[in-house]
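Quick question, first post here. What does this chain look like in 3D?
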Amino acid sequence: MNAILTSMAEGVVVMDGQAQIIMANKAAENIFVVKEGVLKGRRFCGCPDYEQISAKVEEVLKNGKEAFIETTIKPHSQIFQVHVAPIKGANGEIEGAVAVFHDVTDARNFDQMRSEFVSNVSHELRTPLTSIKGFVETLLDGAMENSVLCRRFLTIIDSETFRLSRLIEDLLTLSSIESKEQAVDTHPVCMPRYVSNVMNVLGPQISEKDLQVEYIYDNALPYVHADEDLLNQVLINLLDNAIKYTPSGGKITIRSQERDNRVLTTITDTGMGIPRESLPRVFERFYRVDKARSRDLGGTGLGLAIVKHIVESHGGEVMVDSEVGKGSTFGFSFIAL
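> Answer (accepted):
Ran it through. Tokens below.
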């Protein structure tokens, strides 16, 4: 019995007819953060943190029927599903109870994340759809007769439709990367060549805002293991963000350097910056520091989440540093050859 209890991942606590603990396995001691043998002889009653568990134990000892409860246990605030069952003797009398603690923290966190994701997607889809519906109704009500108004409304509808299309494409891309449906086909890649290509692609936006963009790298920089298409997506997302959030006449500095058998590429802008409290969340799906401005600039709220998943699928890491009013630095590392 000791061998079985010790090998179990779930916490097991056995109590006598007076609800006093007579046996607890190692997993249970870890749950309650106590040393070996400390739980033996104790009761759950009398401790405010375990009132729910105590009530269920008393209930089972009284009526002899098994019961379930979900509760949060300190000090790590983990969520446990607790199954309490009676222990009956040969004559059917209740001699005690056994409580099994199953950790459901990850499952509940996942449920919360899924709920938030569905809520965010619904909100992001509703906004452009409401706009499109409103302008179509206005056109059908007679605005089509006014050619100036008609053209203006159709331009807005076209813009909102493009935004919807981008959102759906980003969702599909993120889903494909997360589920590993999209194979990562790595080859030796020259980082400076790909950075230069992306700078050329985004040249019109850079010129339009009169931005100074500088790329600094070592000529002896090693190649990296990367999927070329996915690397392009990372670079375009990060540089496009830097361009959007840097005021006209500002400066963007891109650096690639070798560090600890990796090639670290950073993109530093002189934009508005990000508040310190928002930095840990910027790579989350749909998280926006300034929701209104992000939408005005055409953002879907998924770009940085896509960057994070692509980089991590290559065994790399992402980073961000920023100061409000001075600018931001986003970086990513790939394994060097």
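The mean pLDDT is 87.
The chain has three domains: 2-103, 106-182, 185-337.
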